[in-house]
Specification:
The protein is 76% helix and 0% strand. It is mainly alpha-helical. It is elongated, with a radius of gyration of 13 Å. The N and C termini lie far apart (41 Å).
Length: 75
């Protein structure tokens, strides 16, 4: 599947969240998820993502939120 430029631009943030989760960097994961959600919503509002990409990103965000639902700030 060909990805839009905006979807490719979101990839580093998605990868960083995965790294944060695998290393148990809770605070970083929470911050990066917040950034991913904001960037995704902005891209949706601007019409920069294909419908399939929107669906995929929303599912990914939901998955991350489920993984982080019991995280609390450590500071």
């Amino acid at each position: 599947m060909f990805q839009s430029r905006k979807r490719k631009a979101l990839e580093p943030t998605i990868k960083q969240i995965r790294v944060d989760l695998s290393n148990n960097y809770k605070d970083n994961a929470i911050e990066n998820l917040k950034r991913l959600k904001q960037e995704t919503e902005a891209a949706i509002s601007a019409g920069e993502l294909k419908p399939k990409e929107v669906e995929e990103l929303k599912g990914l965000i939901e998955h991350f939120e489920t993984d982080m639902k019991n995280f609390k700030r450590t500071y």
